[in-house]
Design brief:
This protein has 80 residues and is an all-alpha fold. Helices cover 78% and strands 0% of the residues. It has two domains: 43 residues; 35 residues, no CATH class.
Length: 80
């Protein structure tokens, strides 16, 4: 059974549940796993990478490759 079929099967079974304790446990497991995966993906940036990022940002600013806050807000407004 592929992942999509497993998810659908799980959701169907989940929707049949009438026990609030079981649903709460599933919520706790899901939140804990999401947090664990998020923290696992977080890796600190090296000082060298940070300095390179700053150098590029300064170069972009010097060459006019930036947007003002107003321009950015206008762009964001057009997304919705």
């Amino acid at each position: 059974m592929d992942l999509e079929a497993r998810k659908i099967s799980f959701i169907q079974e989940f929707l049949r549940l009438n026990n609030e304790n079981i649903i709460s446990k599933f919520e706790e497991i899901m939140q804990a796993e999401k947090k664990r995966l998020y923290e696992k993906e977080m890796t600190p940036m090296s000082v060298s990478d940070f300095n390179n990022m700053l150098d590029k940002a300064e170069e972009d600013a010097a060459k006019g490759r930036t947007k003002s806050a107003d321009e950015l807000n206008h762009d964001i407004d057009s997304w919705s």
